[in-house]
């Protein structure tokens, strides 16, 4: 499989244009990115696409509000992502698919599996499931992210990027410049503030104490698809104890924790991640009970 960047394709929906890349043939595999400053689906998953495309029609969706697909307006990025995934799957006519979601994308993919269980073959999350049990929240990476969106400086961006990884040498000047250019785009920055601004962070901290709201993790027992939870042991954004509730609650769930690895498992432990995920995705579904 060639490692060349596939062209950026467009799908028009009633809520705006969604953009995506795809490579390979076979059963559809949808990759959903996270939510940090300057993120794109291609930056999250470009290194993994060649391996997955040998087995699957691998599709990298750019979620609204992050500078590639159309803006999400004043809608919360998590809510717009959930509707975007449904619009995208319907627009491409995907009757059944597997999903891989990184961070925010993991929560969005899980919600899709809850809303449309008949369409999900298998589900993989990357540091994007559950809730902290022992660790204080929000995590260090989220706090640094909030500091950046409230007052975007290059130094704050670098501090946040360093919190994402175990090995700081992965944060190159090229990465910093790419992220800075996209993260400071006015519409993208406004979207980030909806999710990680000071008020959003306060709401995030208060959410576990709101008895009127059914938390997403409380529905994990309803996920029917075989599910693989992956995590970096040294994740400073979403601490690894978040995986404990999914491990207990998912009826067909399993977990793999990667050592010497932060939040970007698919980048920092690329070869091991691809091996584990491909083993899971290509396994006979009837044995994944």
From TrEMBL:
Pfam families: Abhydrolase_1. It comes from the Bacteria. GO terms for molecular function: hydrolase activity. Transmembrane segments: none annotated. Keywords: Hydrolase. The keyword Hydrolase applies. Residues 27-268 form the AB hydrolase-1 domain. GO terms for cellular component: membrane. The keyword Hydrolase applies. This is Alpha/beta hydrolase. It comes from Dietzia lutea. The lineage of its organism: Bacteria, Bacillati, Actinomycetota, Actinomycetes, Mycobacteriales.
């Amino acid at each position: 499989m060639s490692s060349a960047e596939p062209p950026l394709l467009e799908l028009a929906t009633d809520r705006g244009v969604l953009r995506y890349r795809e490579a390979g043939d076979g059963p559809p595999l949808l990759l959903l990115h996270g939510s940090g400053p300057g993120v794109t689906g291609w930056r999250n998953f470009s290194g993994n696409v060649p391996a997955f495309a040998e087995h699957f029609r691998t599709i990298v969706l750019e979620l609204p509000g992050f500078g590639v697909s159309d803006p999400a307006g004043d809608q919360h990025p998590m809510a717009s992502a959930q509707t975007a995934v449904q619009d995208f799957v319907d627009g491409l006519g995907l009757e059944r698919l597997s999903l891989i979601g990184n961070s925010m994308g993991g929560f969005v993919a899980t919600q899709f599996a809850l809303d449309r269980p008949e369409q999900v073959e298998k589900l993989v999350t990357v540091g994007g499931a559950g809730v902290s049990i022992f660790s204080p929240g929000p995590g260090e990476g989220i706090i640094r992210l909030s500091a950046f969106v409230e007052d975007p400086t290059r130094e704050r961006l670098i501090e946040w990027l360093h919190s994402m990884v175990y090995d700081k040498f992965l944060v190159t000047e090229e990465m910093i410049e790419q992220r800075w250019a996209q993260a400071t785009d006015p519409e993208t920055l406004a979207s980030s503030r909806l999710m990680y601004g000071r008020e959003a962070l306060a709401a995030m901290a208060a959410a576990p104490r709101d008895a009127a709201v059914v938390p997403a993790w409380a529905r994990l027992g309803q996920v029917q698809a075989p599910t693989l939870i992956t995590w970096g042991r040294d994740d400073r954004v979403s601490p690894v104890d978040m995986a404990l509730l999914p491990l207990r609650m998912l009826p067909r769930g399993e977990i793999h924790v990667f050592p010497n690895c932060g939040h970007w498992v698919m980048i920092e432990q690329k070869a091991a991640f691809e091996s584990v995920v491909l083993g899971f995705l290509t396994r006979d579904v009837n044995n994944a009970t």
